[in-house]
Amino acid sequence: MATTEGREKRNFGLISEKGEEVGTFSGAQPRDAALKVANRGFSNIVLREKGTKKLHYFVGKRELVAVPKNAPSWIQEAAKKNKGKIYKANVEKVGTAQLQYVKLERNPKELFKVPKKAAAEKAKPAAKKK
Asked: Name one GO biological process term (predicted).
């Protein structure tokens, strides 16, 4: 796993479908912030990189998985509440976009939704090869 030593953390605002910022998450990469959002139960994730006009789109989920044997003791202790399982987040980036205006309310509302085509492709199960 890559360390974040020496890499500066950036802030990302979680944008609702109404175009409102509902939270701030930090990470060295947009994916780091998206994993934190997904672990809170969000599936369609739109993050705005603070200080820029860039939007990042992710599709995410979280699932209960068994605790690894080499997990730290505090994780194993927390997992006892869920019968030895913990939540693990998984996200996949589906695209980026640029805001037209700095103020969120001036931008078209379509920008604040994960692209349907990309979201539908990610949700479909893989086709079996013959």
From this structure: DNA protection
117 is a domain residue: no
Kind and range of the H or E element at 14? strand 10-15
DSSP 67: P
| Top-ranked range on mean pLDDT: pick from 16-20, 45-49, 81-85, 126-130 | 45-49
Q: Is residue 116 part of a domain?
A: no
Q: How many domains does the chain have?
A: 1
Distance CA 34, CA 66 (A): 22
**According to the model, what pLDDT value does residue 40 have?**
94
In three-state secondary structure terms, 122 is helix
Mean pLDDT confidence for 103-123: 78
Q: Give the separation between CA 14 and CA 115, rounded to whole angstroms.
A: 16
Domain that holds residue 105: 10-110
- Torsion angle of alpha carbons 97, 18, 119, 26, nearest 10°? 60
pLDDT at residue 116 in the model:
74
Q: Contact 118/57 with Cβ under 8 angstroms?
A: yes
Judge whether 36 lies within some domain. yes
Pairing label, strands 44-49, 54-66: antiparallel
